[in-house]
Design goal:
It is a single chain. This protein is mostly helical. Helices cover 72% and strands 0% of the residues. The protein contains 6 helices and no strands. Helix 1 crosses helix 4, helix 3 crosses helix 4 and helix 4 packs across helix 5. The longest helix has 33 residues. The two termini are 19 Å apart. 28% of the residues are buried.
Amino acid sequence: MRRLFRGALRTGVLAGIAGTAAMDSVWYQRHRAEGGTASFRDWEFQTVNGFENAPAPAKVGQALARKVHIEIPDGKAGLTNNVVHWTTGISWGVVAAMLRPLPRVGAIKSGLIVGVASWSTSYAVLPKLGVYKPITEYDAKTLWKDLSAHLVFGSVVGAASLAFGGVRAMLRR
């Protein structure tokens, strides 16, 4: 059982990294299509001037830190954004890997489940933290853009979970 858990954990971490990178690629391609000129590296690790106008992951990190009485300086908003964003993606990858062995789930379905779950959780939890508006205040186009990026995330998590799990099985032979 412990070996199965460790294997799923490793697979989930790798799948979460792959899924997060894929989702970021979608958002970056959209950034470029809308006239953005930043390189991927500059876009991914953008300077964030304080938490007030920071992306959602930075605000979540700040809210969590405040819950445990830690104040993160505004100069660390960009770092906080990336740490929370990537940690969240990796965590959802681990969830997908844990769902995978369930009857009639498998790798691809588990990835799609976490893609939809991560998207819907954002709209359920983040308004309560003051990071998002209630879902009813977003237009359909905005919701679709966000959901479609999360579906790419989930699809890649599922495919990567299948690939990394298959590699692990081959290495055991």
